[in-house]
Design a protein that fits this description.
The structure is a single chain. This protein is of the alpha+beta class. Helix content is 32%, strand content 28%. The chain has two domains: 97 residues, Double Stranded RNA Binding Domain (2-Layer Sandwich), CATH 3.30.160.100; 41 residues, SHC Adaptor Protein (2-Layer Sandwich), CATH 3.30.505.50. It has five helices and seven strands, in the order βαβββααααβββ. A four-stranded mixed sheet has the order 1-2-3-4, with helices on one face. Strands 5-6-7 form a three-stranded antiparallel sheet, covered by helices on one side. Strand 3 and strand 4 form a beta hairpin.
């Protein structure tokens, strides 16, 4: 084990059993990526979570030379949160290794294959393209009418409306727990 492992509990007591479980699971990362210097695992018990499914939080941060990977997962069981957060880190590790370590297959680097003058042509980045513009008329309505309109239109993620009570544009959005959020922007 060539890395420093730090396990921190927030509103959560890290028992010896949990410590051993994390040690065993995190050892997988070292097998996949040997340049790891430090792994920090934060475990938390959030008593005020809206859903019991989100009570335990496992956040893992992996640091190494020119490397920073992070994942966070929530679950109703601390071991499940650790496992899923570790799976995310393993996927990120595979993606990182694919970009940094896997070659072209013919033993040559991309720099050897691409002529220098061709490489210089691609340095310029294209400006982002706005693929579609949409204009629509806004009818003043209150928040409850906006929720109803959002449901009627089948807009699952968000709805923009003119709030009749405040006289401003608002954005209504659906949250993960099937409640709604309201964004009230101010022009400064």
């Amino acid at each position: 084990m060539s890395y420093k492992l730090e396990i921190v509990g927030r509103d959560f007591e890290v028992t010896d059993r949990i410590q051993e479980y994390v040690d065993k699971k995190v050892a997988k990362l070292d097998r996949h990526l040997s340049m790891i210097d430090e792994i920090r695992v934060e475990l938390a018990h959030v008593k005020s979570a809206r859903s019991a499914i989100d009570r335990y939080v496992a956040q893992m941060t992996v640091r190494g030379k020119a490397l920073l990977l992070r994942s966070e997962e929530r679950s109703d069981d601390v071991r499940m949160a650790i496992d899923v957060a570790l799976e995310k880190l393993l996927r990120q590790t595979a993606r990182y290794k694919g970009k940094k370590f896997h070659g072209r297959g013919d033993g040559k680097s991309a720099a050897e294959v691409v002529p220098v003058e061709d490489a210089l042509e691609y340095v310029e980045e294209e400006a982002p393209v706005i693929a579609r513009r949409k204009k629509f008329d806004l009818t003043p309505m209150d928040e409850m009418e906006a929720i109803e309109q959002m449901k009627l239109l089948g807009h699952d993620n968000f709805f923009i409306f003119f709030n009749a009570q405040t006289g401003k544009l608002n954005v209504l959005y659906r949250r993960r727990d099937d409640t709604y959020g309201l964004i009230e922007p101010n022009v400064i």
